[in-house]
Amino acid sequence: MLSCVIDLYQCISKRINDMMLRIDSMPNEREMSKDNIQVDNLYTEGEQWVQNLGEKTVHAKRMGGKFRLLKWLGTLVWLPFFITPYITWNGQQAILFDIEKRQYHLFDVTIFPQDLWMLTMVLLFLAILLAAMTTVLGRVFCGYFCFQTVWTDMFTKVEDFFEGAPIKRRKLEVAPWDLTKIRIKISKHVVWLAIAFLSGVTWMLYFGVSWSDYFDGSASSTTLSITAAISLGAYTFAGHMREQTCLWICPYARIQGAMVDKQTIMPTYDHYRGEQRGKLSKGQYTKGQGDCIDCHQCVAVCPTGVDIRKGQEYGCITCGLCIDACDSVMTKVGKATGLIRYTSLDEMKFNKPSVALYKRPRVIVYSTILVLALSVLGAGLFSLAPMDLKVLHDRQPLFVQLSDGSIRNKYELKIMNKTHQSMLVDVDFESEIAHLTSQRRHRNITIPSGNVKSVYVYLKAFEKDVGDNNSVIFSVTSGEADLEYKSSFFTPKSMN
Ligand code: SF4
Ligand code: SF4
Question: What separation in Å is there between the alpha carbon of 305 and the centre of ligand 2?
Answer without folding.
Answer: 8
